[in-house]
Specification:
The protein has about 650 residues and is α+β, with helices and mostly antiparallel strands. The protein is about 40% helix and about 20% strand. It starts with 10 loop residues before the first helix and ends in a 9-residue tail after the last strand. Bound molecules: iron/sulfur cluster (2 copies).
Length: about 650
Amino acid sequence: MAAKKQSPVNYYRIVLQWGIFALLAYMLVRPFWDKSYAPDFEAYCPFGGMQSLASYLSIHSLACSMTTIQIALGIALIAGVILFSKLFCSYLCPIGTFTEWMGELGRKAKMQLKVNKNIDRFLRLLKYALLFITFYFTVTSSELFCRKFDPFYASFTGFSGDVFFWYAFPALLLTIAGSFFIRQFWCRYLCPLGAVTNIAVYALPAAALTLLWVLLTNVAGLSIPWPWLLGAVCLTGFIFEAFTMKFFVFPTLRITRHEALCTHCRICDKKCPMAIEISTVDTVNHIDCHLCVDCVIKCPEKGALTINKRNMSWLPALATVILTAAAITIATFYELPTISENWGDVNGKNIQTVQMDGLKSIKCFGSSRSFANHMKEIPGIKGVETYVKHHRVVVYYDKSQISAEGVKAAIFSPLSELLNFDGKLATKVSFVQLGIDRCFDPKDQFYLGELLRSEKGVLALSTRFGEPVQAKIYYDATLTSPEKIEAAATPKTLVLGEGDQQTTVETGFAVNEAGKAKGEMPANEFLTLFIPTVDVSFNKYSSYSYDKMLVYELPFEQAADPGMQQWMPFLVSHASNDDGIVRIQSAFTESGPVIRIWFVSTLTTVGKINSALKSPELIVHYPDKSTKKVKNPFLFIFEN
Ligand code: SF4
Ligand code: SF4
């Protein structure tokens, strides 16, 4: 018996498809040995780029963490469709590859179903509806709406982040099961990017609609909101696809069958991942063809199938690589701002700019938005641009109103944080002030705090603007020294989190000799700086004159304990049960922390107050007017 002849392999395609999976696998496993690496599975997403570009064109802001790379890839994808064919779908899309494999499994198991032609046409509407919804919500919110349901994003992020489980989980199940029973179920019926590529195939009607909208809104002065244009373009794409099911002008490359060489063996029909009947046509104009060239490679008759009458099966794969590389290269030289906003004249003669790089907190649309909102409140600042890829901001300011240093001071967010302080103090606290380079961003200041936390005697850190940033570090001189603190602040990396959650971040702080100082301060001054005090009045406090009230003061060590701060509102609520108690204050005095209880002597007594404070349970009132008893965690020392 003759051995079964092996079907030729489409290496052009397989290499690219496996290359994408290898890249994704690398992104998944790299965090196991590189704790500072955070995979970004959307880093090369052309669909995110398209949504982002739409958001940029309509509201001058890029969606989420999208940068010029995704936009350039989106433009390359559209150019690829028009010039060549639906190359991304065929060679790069991981969902396309996966669902194709699922379909192959279904075919081998003989479980594939053929969809009735009319139902098939109708189901194609779904992807255009999803496209409209996705673009509409992304542009109006500058958050990528597709993240909520995208099976790729959900699978690779473990259903975390912006994924909405009850959208994404059914979408994933439907994609897997649907593709097993129906060839390229996801691509044909659900993929919004598939809808975009088909709209690009029908680029001329889409362009005509866009031109008409521009003329009507800009020349004729009509007010037609952009969602109408989006809806019209989606509907046109669907009508052309469902009612013609074929290419017209674009794409320019088509599979051509040469009747004289064809033996009608129908192998091409069986091997086509899109289930197109190639053996019955001279030119494949079917809308689902994505020029994978499987049919060309697998056809046993050399030359029976070609691309545009030429034997160049390598061309689509090569074009895919060139377009992708060109998009990434161009994007490295040019970056669109995530936000570009002016609220004053940025071309006036007094306008200057401050540019700052490496602001780690500027990492997405949301952080850019809050940065812009904060800058709007600063007199003299007229506009901002943010560039998330390089964590860069450019601030436009009027030099007659604010200086460059003033702008930087406005960008700076000071930190004030307790580190290893447990509420127990000697009478004095030592401090050292260091100038720290590369510590401007709030994230950097947080990292500095975490580095210093490793030095046992460091009690707290506060920062203020300066170039370099001025960090004041408070410490217990019996446990550490300025030299040890300086050493603790300067390692190049920092490990955050525990166990599986561990990540390593780069720090690279340098202690600058400028502005170094050290000294001591009384403990109560330190406590006043870092621990909030309580001063709450209630029970008609303001209705009593001062001569009607007495103040009962008690030592209160627990006021200095950071862990007890959460209990202070409970204590106040409990005290308010006594109508005679009208105000509670905590304070840090030279003789130690105290609590002061203001009371009306005609309504209550010190004895009653002591009983309330000693009570094993606090009776606490909640905003919903309910009352609960909680265990009293306070230990007061009463004078005899
Ligand atoms: S595989 Fe080649 S020979 Fe066979 S039907 Fe298709 S085009 Fe014709
Ligand atoms: S017709 Fe040929 S090139 Fe087009 S999708 Fe089918 S197998 Fe691929």
